[in-house]
Amino acid sequence: xxxxxxxxxxxxxxxxxxxxxxxxxxxxxxxxxxxxxxxxxxxxxxxxxxxxxxxxxxxxxxxxxxxxxxxxxxxxxxxxxxxxxxxxxxxxxx
Length: 94
What we know:
Low-confidence stretches: none
Oligomer: single chain
Distance between the termini: 33 Å
Largest sheet: none
Helix content: over 70%
């Protein structure tokens, strides 16, 4: 019974950076477009709401592309780590 809590603790510690990235990018996706909209409308585009909306859409897309890139990089690291520990497949092990 003592193996289950230690396994759970190891999994939690392993997934903590993933959860942190997800929360950080969630907050960025929630607040970046809104703040960019109002800041660009007041200071960059002098009240033009169309250009401010376009700027907010670009900010949201930047956050989404950042999330995709980080996810792909993390997946590549995980596959490299698992390939290094796996045995090569032979006809007998199939």
